[in-house]
Amino acid sequence: MPEDKYLLKAIQQLVQLLGVLVFYLVASSVFLMGQSYGLFEHEQEVMAQQPSSKVKPAASPPAKEVWHAPDTSSIPVTPEGALIRYGRELIAHTAVYLGPKGTVQQISNGMNCQNCHLQAGTVPFGNNYGAVATTYPKFRHRSGTLEGFEKRINDCLERSLNGQALEVESREMKAMVAYMQWVGKDVVKGSTPEGFGLLDLKPLDRAADPVKGKLVYDKHCTLCHGSKGEGIMAENGLEWTYPPLYGPNSYNIGAGLYRLSRFAGFVKANMPYGTTYENPVLTDEEAWDVAAFVNAMARPAKDLSMDWPDISKKPFDHPFGPYADHFSEEQHKFGPFDPIKATQQ
Q1: Is residue 25 part of a domain?
Q2: Containing H/E element for 138?
Q3: Please, which residues bridge with residue 185 across strands?
Q4: Which element (helix H / strand E) includes 232?
Q5: Do 274 and 127 touch, CB atoms closer than 8 A?
Q6: Both 240 and 293 in a single domain?
Q7: 145: domain range?
Q8: 122 in the same domain as 237
């Protein structure tokens, strides 16, 4: 029928129109999306070129540079250098020369100075000699006198090495003095470099516990120092590879390490063997407790009656009275120390 012919033609035209419309709609969408993406990229470029409004964290202050000993290869090849090298040898192998079988004298217990002053007094926080040259002579409250190198060295011989004093004019004394002066030659006079001496640990809020310390000792210390603190003798039979920590061959009650704070700082930074101050093995609590255990054990006596003529100057952890405060010997030895320190400020 003619009407059907016209209707079919109208439908075909409508379909064509719809197709064109769809094409334009799709094309417009693609174009708009492209424009939007381009705008986004442009915004990203602009933002990248702008300074960030976010506040950056402040940089950490640089750590203090830790003192390091001069290289031994720099010791001059001169008579003075020979004396310095001999002094270093005496510090490293004291017992070979001055021990019970010493080749020069027999005036000490067989320990070496470097058992307490590691690597001949050159290790940061290893009880080193870095600032000795810049601070001696100095007034020391323990003796109540102005002390020079010689007095300080003889103190170590008589206390830490439980021995006798060297003659001040002896070659051995002059050599050790020369070595200590050389070790600290680059330190500014009157200054105390970072890393000198020992770590200063924060006291516990309780007394250090020898029972807990025995557990620490059994776990970390017996391999080198023995189950009874007896140490291990070197093959030469003259000195200790690992020194005795208590018993008749160890330091006496007048030694610096008999103070808990000194022993705890020493082991925290250096023990067990191979430890450094940068990578400690023991916690602070373990260091305090093992110090309490070791220093609770029997060791040689020493007459301390002439020490600390002004008792008000005694350190907070000096374990023997009388004191200028009301705290007991027990608390002065094991703590807690903060109440004692508060009265000394």
Answers
A1: no
A2: strand 138-140
A3: none
A4: strand 232-233
A5: no
A6: yes
A7: 72-183
A8: no
First to last CA, the chain: 120
Task: Give the pLDDT mean for 110-137.
Answer: 96
Instruction: Spell out the residues 6+ positions from residue 60 whose beta carbon is closer than 8 angstroms to its own.
Output: none
- The pLDDT score that the predictor gives to residue 332 is 98
Answer whether 194's CB lies under 8 Å from 128's CB.
Answer: no
Q: How many separate domains does the chain show? A: 2
- At residue 79's C-alpha, the angle toward residues 75 and 84, to 5°, is 45
In a domain, 61, yes or no: no
Token duo for residue 321: 């009275």
CATH number of domain containing 110? 1.10.760.10
**Which residue is listed with tokens 């067989």?**
110
- To 5 degrees, how large is the angle CA 327–CA 332–CA 334? 125
Are 171 and 110 contained in the same domain?
yes
> What is the reported pLDDT for 189?
86
Residue 344 one-letter amino acid: Q
Question: Which amino acid, one-letter code, is at 311?
Answer: I
β-bridge mates for residue 138, sequence order: 147
Instruction: Compute the distance between CA of residue 164 and CA of residue 112 in angstroms, rounded to an integer.
Output: 14
User: What six digits make up the tokens of 261?
Assistant: 């704070």
DSSP H or E stretch at residue 47: helix 2-49
Q: What is the pLDDT of residues 5-43, one digit of tens each?
A: 444 454 455 445 445 444 444 444 433 344 433 433 333
Cβ atoms of 293 and 217 closer than 8 Å: yes
Q: Are 170 and 103 in contact (CB under 8 A)?
A: no
- Of 199, 216, 333, 317, which Cα lies nearest the Cα of 266? 199
